[in-house]
Specification:
By secondary structure, the protein is mainly beta. The protein is built from three helices and 13 strands; from the N terminus they run E-E-E-E-H-E-E-E-E-E-H-E-E-E-E-H.
Length: 227
């Protein structure tokens, strides 16, 4: 995770984790185990603002819309979107359909707009890039800000996501995700606002299949398992 103010880095947090990924056909949620981590913080450049935002490694995992479709396309909200074909593209000699989606114009609640990239031959989602509608900044702020100073107003100015899937042995798996959150802090009795951006990304380097018993009782930290 990286926290920036005006393109100047304030905080950098990196980690290697074991992801115990439940099958896509299962209702069981994923689990994350810390393997090793490091953090770099420049306290001399940090402001006195104290915010509590929704975050952590699960943010990157929940972008996996094939595992967690309820966060974007659940049964109740699917009819709130308009889908349309864009021009097709070729990626690694594969024909990819590009599907645009956006919320209905008469809706004001914060939903999403973006593009779905689908393998034309196998009808498999290979990637998704989308962003949150933050027109109603107060409602958008309630989705992310859990704690803030009393003399400041905080709201997001950009919320964007990306998830990629990779094929291995004829099956497609979650392989990468990126979350970008930019927010503005408006202090009382101050002339200028502060703008911060936070980036959280996760990349899967390798994986292997494990038995359900191991999922409930993760192995020792010395073994790196990404499934």
């Amino acid at each position: 995770m990286r926290l920036l103010k005006k393109k100047n880095e304030r905080l950098l947090s990196e980690a290697v984790v074991n992801i115990y990924k439940a099958p896509y056909s299962s209702l069981k949620r994923d689990a994350v185990e810390m393997y090793k981590a490091r953090k770099s913080t420049d306290y001399s450049k940090l402001d006195t603002v104290a915010l509590k935002l929704q975050g952590g490694p699960f943010n990157a995992l929940f972008v996996d819309i094939m595992k967690y479709p309820e966060y974007i396309f659940d049964e109740e909200s699917i009819d709130d979107y308009v889908f349309s074909f864009d021009r097709s593209v070729r990626v690694n000699d594969q024909l990819i359909y590009v599907i645009n989606f956006k919320q209905l114009e008469n809706l004001t609640e914060p939903l999403y707009k973006g593009q779905l990239f689908i393998d034309a031959e196998n009808k498999i989602l290979t990637s998704a890039i989308y962003s949150l509608n933050i027109t109603d900044r107060d409602e958008a702020a309630r989705l992310f800000v859990r704690k803030k100073p009393r003399n400041a107003k905080v709201w997001p100015t950009e919320v964007a996501y990306r998830v990629d899937y990779r094929e291995k042995n004829g099956r497609w798996y979650y392989s990468y995700s990126n979350v970008l959150l930019e927010f503005k802090v408006n202090w009382d009795k101050k002339l200028f606002n502060s703008v911060y951006s936070m980036t959280c990304e996760m990349a899967v380097t390798d994986w292997e299949k494990i038995l359900p018993a191991h999922f409930l009782n993760p192995r020792k930290e010395s073994e790196l398992l990404l499934y």
